[in-house]
Amino acid sequence: MSITVHGPHFQFETEALAAGALQVAGVDEVGRGPLAGPVTAAAVILAPGRIPEGLNDSKMLTAKRREALHDAILEVAEVSVAHASVEEIDEINILRASHLAMTRALAGLSRPPCLALVDGNLLPRDMPCEGRAIVRGDAVCLSISAASIMAKVRRDRIMWDLAQQYPGYGWETNAGYGSKSHMAALQNLGPTPHHRRSFKPVHNILYQEKNLTD
Known about the structure:
Radius of gyration: 18 Å
Shape: elongated
Structural class: alpha/beta
């Protein structure tokens, strides 16, 4: 008889550990879609007997719950968070930049994992360990859920700090995504150094500005 498991579970990790893996990390990134700010990735190694209650895809949680789980994860898990900059996003494209942030997060773990469970359908190049891609991993795999929470909280904090330096774009609430108010500010105030110039809405405004000054 098959059992249907709802929500994220620990089966991927349990199977890998049973097969001989000593450390299994979950990896996820946040920030592929925004028009501004870095892309942020986290790698998390959960201890089988010390998994915080309530882990889930970060998008399914409130900001307050994410913050609480962020602290709970830090207390019991091995965590590494890394970024790829706006300059790197513009230079190598957002997919490769998000993969770069993931490999940096994995490399930042104090103990290299035997296996990385990676959210999505593609594995980053140059991973420091074996990898397994899991589609919708943040919704089905506890280690990836934990990584999604860590990455989201850390990136939101970066965008909140940037919002204080560049008021008017609403980054403290939209995290750099192209909300209506952010798009209006982009038109009225112009791009900042933290906007992704390779992204079409930003590129188009820069093109308009160049034509006006030519």
